[in-house]
Design a protein that fits this description.
Blueprint: E1 14-15, E2 22-32, E3 39-42, E4 50-53, E5 60-61, E6 72-77, E7 80-85, E8 92-94, E9 97-99, E10 101-104, E11 109-112, E12 115-127, E13 135-136, E14 139-140, H1 144-158, E15 163-166, H2 173-182, E16 191-195, H3 201-209, H4 226-229, E17 234-238, H5 245-257, E18 259-261, E19 268-270, E20 274-279, H6 283-288, H7 294-300, E21 303-306, H8 317-327, H9 340-345, H10 351-365, H11 388-400, H12 406-428, H13 433-440, H14 444-454
Parallel strand pairs: 1-21, 4-5, 15-20, 15-21, 16-17, 17-20
Antiparallel strand pairs: 2-3, 2-12, 4-6, 6-7, 7-10, 8-9, 8-11, 11-12, 13-14, 18-19
The structure holds adenosine-5'-triphosphate (ATP).
Length: 458
Amino acid sequence: MGSPVHPSLSEETVLRPKRNSATTSFQLTFVRGPDAGVVLVVDGAAACPLLLGTSEVCSVRLRDPEVSRRHASLDVYDTYLRVRDLGSKNGTFVNDTRVGEALLTGGEEIQIGSTVARVDIEVKSKPIPVSPDTSFGPVLGSSLAMRRLYPLCRRLAESDVPLVIEGETGTGKEVMAEALHAASRRATGPFVVFDCTAVPASLLESALFGHEKGAFTGAASARAGVFEEAHGGTLLIDEIGDLEKSLQSKLLRAIQKSEIRRLGGSRWVKVDVRLIAATRRDLDKEVQAGRFRDDLFFRLAVARIALPPLRDRRDDIEPLARHFWELYGGREKPFPVHLLDRLLSHSWPGNVRELANTVARLVALGELADSYSELFRQPLPIEGEDGEFALARDFIENVVGQNLPLAEAREQVLREFERRYVVHLLKLHGGDSARAAAASGIGERYLRMIRARVRPAT
Ligand SMILES: Nc1ncnc2c1ncn2[C@@H]1O[C@H](COP(=O)(O)OP(=O)(O)OP(=O)(O)O)[C@@H](O)[C@H]1O
């Protein structure tokens, strides 16, 4: 016990940014349960979240039958030992108190099932390698949290192992995937992005694996899926946590065998694709809850990169703001340093994307920005039932007037449209998302995704 069982999962391939350049380690001594006597070190320098459970995918596999398959995770966060329950059946306890997540300092007892481990802090601390670079390709960031990621990103770019990039919306998962592709031997091959939430459930399989002519009503001609499109390159599957379970099995097969079969086809086609999955969800919890296949997770998460939210790397705010200022055409005007305090104190729930949008608005507003109190808001939402057309027009003009790049502007309009659409649809069907999804011809999962995304404004 204690040594990772995944054949290719080494501590270095699991990347978790830490705040300090030196970290603390913790020792766990199992004092009760079938594994009593075993000693385990949670090494802060390795920054590796250890999974405790009875499943073979856990780095620490316990024999206690009262322990869930994936019960809890342990990692060193700052100078604390962080223990997180992964949605286990009978809970994780610290000194007899049930916890979802807890930061420990040493001296506590952790209980899972009938297994009890004592936590001791290790005195020695090791430095973590920090890159002097302030970017990794297009991924900018000079904060310690980001600079800790770069050396390992470079190593991951050189390898072909599948990997999972985790992080809140707008933290740069896609841009990181692109950077890894660009730094890899596949750089001259295609980089294909597939967003699982952007395609209705009924079309997902054909979008992933392609279809033959006549495979379903409307399939007038044969079409390659994203796996074939990405042949020789990298395929980013975005929001993988939203993929239906039936498709997860097919995806697993595609990864294991490096071959796919088009919908309605009889031939298996070999594909040479490096797979990167991105997710806003906590995949450990999704697996524990039975919504994501354990074996697929095991296959995909050979390496993991956790991108920290912008609020946890405030040192990046100013350089990123200056970068976006230049990018959006503020080059001729001096950067508005008097607004820096506001930029630095904002919590950035939309992360780097929100910062980029805010700076784009700043560039467009010029000197008006001083008195513009709405600076940190998204464009005016369309509220109220009266005069909706006028409000919609104003909204679009508002977006157009910000002189954003086309993709950003289109995304803002599209998001607002989806918000309105879903709010109206749910109202019509008494809040029943299954009925609303059926009536609108979109998957329930997709509808719930839009709903979750727009919730703050509804
Ligand atoms: N570190 C960074 N350096 C430069 N630009 C960044 C960085 N992180 C994010 N961005 C920019 O912010 C925007 C959002 O980034 P991206 O789409 O990669 O985020 P995401 O995490 O994939 O978001 P979502 O989960 O919503 O899909 C993009 O315009 C991207 O170029």
